[in-house]
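Example complex used in Figure S2.
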Amino acid sequence: MSKIGWLRLAVIVIAVGLLELACRSGLIDHRVVIPPSEMAAALVRLLISGQANDQIARTFGIVVTAVLIAVVGGFALGVVIHALPRVRHALDPFFATYYAVPIFIFYPVMIAIFGLSAVPIVLMGVATAIVAMIIATLNGLDRVPRVLDKVARLHRMGRIATALRLKLPAAAPHLFTGVKLAVSYGFIAVIASEFILAPAGLGRVISDAYTDFNNQRMYALMLLLIVVATVVNMVLHVFDQRWAERRGIGKP
Amino acid sequence: MTATAPDDGIHASLSGVTRVYPGAAGTQPVHALGPVDLDLKRGEFFAVVGPSGCGKSTLLEVLAGLQQPTQGTVTFEGRTIVGEVPDGIGVVFQEDASFPWLTVADNAAFGLRRSGIVESEVQRRVDDALAFMGLKDFSRAYPAQLSGGMRQRVCIARTLVLQPRLILLDEPFGALDAQTRLLMGDEVLRLWRRTGATVLLITHALDEAAMLSDRIGAMSARPGRFLDIVETGWPRERDSTIVGEARFGEITGRLWDNLRGESLKSLGYARMAAE
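Predicted assembly (527 residues):
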């Protein structure tokens, strides 16, 4: 591991250690926050018991579904909008202000339309993540060097071959930024929707545990979400960095 | 001025070619090129020099089939070019057109793999082209790991493997420093001699044109037309050492006599150009 990697690890270990100390010493009330070691032990017990497996599978299934729809749909819409400059000109202000609108106000509307099921949650995930992917696709396609169009014509490539063999790889670093954002936004939207109102899922279980003062369960599942979200983002980050270094985009 | 070759071994030609770009909303159309007549002899090295914006690159793209002429006809090996780059023409652009997501070897093999040639033949041609361009030890490197000159050599190798009979070079060394440009000029001369291809080089550098070419066409400010065609008289076996010869100075002097006024016009100094 690099020096920076060790430094990052040290920051996490120190932060967790300080929280453990604060909880154990009574500086933080045990009824408010339990020590990280207890969170981890509670999570292990919960996973071994299998009590939350259905909820875990449901939530991560919804996240994966929402992110896949957002990434594929956002890319496709981005390509279409990029090919229609007037449409893009008309939509640009909406994209610029999209994340200033509290999208969650539409969640009750979606429940009213689709019922209290997984569908409104998937739609909230998609609605939150898709615009990031559209914007990333537009940015990526804007930055494809125009000389590649000439190269494509030299090799007598059709539109689809040009898009798949040249434009897509050329725009890939920007698309990957969109994928990373879509994953983050998808996670947030799904968990928050479940937390607000849902028949099941990790967000709902955490909400129930909070209402029942069940700190062990609540913090165990919170820890699980933090670990999963962190691992997924780290994997994407490492992949992105290796790719960027290979393409000479730079190493931070 | 007509840049017509004195014998019939015509490889490619432009006849009465003009190119007018339609104006954007509320603006006048831009007459970029012509009328231009040009005959390229089979196997010759022809350079085009001219002031910025005179339509040099437009001329190259029209000849390559990348742009349609507004008027006139373009032929390559006796066939009229219509809307598509014909087989046998290779182009190297000024911009870095290497693919950053592919290795040097995969960059070079790109066109061959698209044309469905068997992999063993692809490998043979790629190995040969990379060795010729001095990139053999970098075949597994990515373009980002190479210098600007080496990336341009990757693009030349990608063109070379397709065994083009007409190679069009659009200011391929424009972004390189003067010393690297001289050395790259030697590379291009080696390439020209080995392939036997006809080469058309677009450049703004008079010394580069004088060193590399059999004939040089000097173009006017926009709309670009040929003002003068200079025969260099260099032997086929030549390299960058000819820059020390008196003839080299005569050629660049004659080119500059033609181009000084045109360059001033292109910069907006019309009165100075008239003096």
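Residues 60-246 of chain A form a domain with the MetI-like fold fold (CATH 1.10.3720.10). The radius of gyration of chain A is 22 Å.
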